[in-house]
Description:
This protein is an alpha/beta fold. The protein has 7 helices and 9 strands. It is about 35% helix and about 15% strand.
Amino acid sequence: MRSFGTVFPGDFLEGYQAGVMQYRYRGLRCLRSPVDMAIQTRAIWDLQPATLIEIGSHSGGGALWLADTARAYGLKAHVFSVDLAPPQIVDPDVTFLQGDVLALDAVFAEHGLGMCPRPWFVIEDSAHTYEGCLAALNFLSGQMQTGDLLVMEDGVLDELGLSERYQGGPNRAIAEFLTARPETFEIDTALCDMFGRNATYAPNGYLRKT
């Protein structure tokens, strides 16, 4: 397993994080790293997804950005955004669903998400806890098909000194999952390293289903 370390200097990352937490898209909090928005813009174009699934809606800015990006590319794609308390936003290409990262099977079954057209572009951006991230990996690995892309957001919290708060968070979950089941996903290093080795908020977190 390659290192989860990023190339972001500590003194840069503190200020960058403050900006990420304030970033808004179409007036709504988006909470997404601009570097990763660039990486994901390329990933969406390359993948040409028919379905985009976001776990963790927050204020809805991220879901609207995904929908706008897909529309800009001329994709006939739909965004499903899952959250414990989904926002009340209306967009023809976005469906907000109530659901828990620890019980994704329930929301997928209720809304038939497993039958959504492929390819899938999936972002796990909910609680960032080790338990939640591992639950998402375990469930999604059985739902996704070869070539689908999963982004496990915010492993950078290790370098922000927040790892203990999240019981190791995404990085611990990814490391343990890939060690136990290396045949399930491969790390898309071209995306992780687009701007430098793991110059992303999702170090080793762009995972291609094999």
